[in-house]
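Can anyone check this?
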Amino acid sequence: MTKRPLIGIVPLWDDKKQSSWVKRTYIEAIYDAGGIPIILPIFQSEQFIEELVARIDGLFLTGGDDIHPSLYEEVKEEECGHTSKVLDDFEWCVLTKTIEKRKPIFGVCRGFQFINVYFNGSLFQDIESQYMKERSFSHRQLPPYDEPAHEVYLSENGVLQHWLGVQQLAVNSRHHQGIKRLGEGLIVEALAPDGLIEAVRHRDYPFLVAVQWHPELRYKRDQAERLLFERFVFSCQENDFSLKGE
């Protein structure tokens, strides 16, 4: 039996309770794809984080609170939601250490946005008020969240199109922020009908992929969503970080 790779999950953080937590759907998605999910303890020590990253085979960045706009050199607007310096600082350090070790990285929602900010990109602090495009859907859908909210169009000859074997994909949508300025080295892998970026990869990194939607809520009913997790876990398992694959 092939040994399951250890996947470190960056959790959500509760400032009031001084505690971290993770939604079960993230854990299930990684396990069902063949990995062992481990919730990373949030502790502000560079040495601790370096030792932590050395023990995992891949990093998964979850959804969660908004990222403080100071990280992309903007003032926090009223429309921006709750932010946490504790989480921002931890995630920045753990992402740095993971990149230094060239280990696979997969991000969703906040994780997608954080990766963009990390590579010197910026965000719309609130899509509705700052990205006023004509659209027949909402990026912040109402329940049930496992139902699709809109289509995304996968980039021609892109990695996601190659993996999933489709040109477009029906996805859910639970966010009010999005990419404004694309981060350095990032390549667009999917767009929403209104032109908002929905997926990226890094052109020079062995395996760094992120999506704006929540595939962990739809992978049980959509094989394409499941493939996203399986590709990530496989790259961690085999030390085969090729984004192309077969």
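Reply from J.R.: I decoded it. The mean pLDDT is 94.
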